[in-house]
Amino acid sequence: MKRNVLITGTSSGVGFESALLFAQKGYKVYATMRNLEKATELQTRAEIEKLDITILQLEVTSIESINAAVATIIEKERHIDILLNNAGAGFAKTTEQATEAEIRWVTDVNYLGVVFCTQAVLPYMRAQKSGQIITLTSVGGLVGQPFNELYCGAKFAVEGFMEGLATYVSDPFNIKISCVEPGGITTEFMKTAIGKTTVAGEFATGEYAPIFEKYRTASQKRASESTTSVYQTGLEVAKVVMNVAETENPPLRIRTSQWAEDFCRLKTQADPDGTLLVAQLKDSFL
Questions:
Q1: Which residue, among 256, 263, 261, 215, has the nearest Cα to 17 in the 3D structure?
Q2: Per-residue pLDDT tens for 240-264?
Q3: Nearest to 105 by CA among 11, 193, 181, 12
Q4: Predicted confidence band at 200 (pLDDT cuts at 50, 70, 90)?
């Protein structure tokens, strides 16, 4: 029997590449996305390669949409083996200058969407006494960065949520929890982050302007260079996700490149993959 995987945010980037890669490896893939008008490229690839991919609508900021997608899969398959929480969006702006709507948006997309998708699949994984939840987080979930504090805050929340969840669902219910932590990715994600940041004239005045200009210049320099030491392709990150999915005892945390590893070293050197901390928490509380 094929293992089936539910992936969020598959219209581009890591989600797109993961959907193809899982299907190529023989999984039944339920590839979901907010806007089905962006499904053409994935659908075409699936048809050309004869891949077992079903595309569904799922908006991670809507509990109704999440539950409807999960219900559709359960009705057809009776089980969900892997959830890949991939959907997310970048955001860079000072806390002072971000609007209430923007703060709620970045939190909903990057944190609450993960919580509600996870909540939706847990009853089925618990009942079947097996499952795996893999979440694409970020080095920003471990290290706060200038002008990214709202995005990093959401990703820190994801890391804490998954760390806490791992302490009590892994042993009794055989549900494996992993956070995959990339650095820079050359995908639509970056374009979204830039689009949400570079509003014309927004940082032209005020005391933050010279600080932001230094940040913007450095970011653009890194992006234009696209050095392999910093930025990865969506496929490169998707391959790390696949390795996690096919590891018998996957880590709680894994960085996707040497650059990401080095960037987070001060936070991770005592317990690089999170295994020791989870064990300690189990001993302390359970």
A1: 256
A2: 999 999 999 999 999 999 999 999 9
A3: 193
A4: very low
Q: Give helix 188-197 / helix 13-24 axis angle, nearest 10°.
A: 170
CA-based nearest residue to 180, from 132, 218, 225: 132
Cβ neighbourhood burial of 73 (10 Å; 0-12, 13-18, 19+): buried
Q: What is the pLDDT of residue 111?
A: 98
**CB of 242 closer than 8 Å to CB of 14:** no
Catalytic residue annotation: 151
Residue 16 and residue 44 in contact, taking contact as beta carbons nearer than 8 Å? no
Q: Between 222 and 77, name the one with better pLDDT.
A: 77
Which CATH architecture is the domain 4-285 placed in?
3-Layer(aba) Sandwich (3.40)
Q: Strand, helix or coil at 79?
A: coil
pTM value is: 0.93
The domains of the chain are located at: 4-285
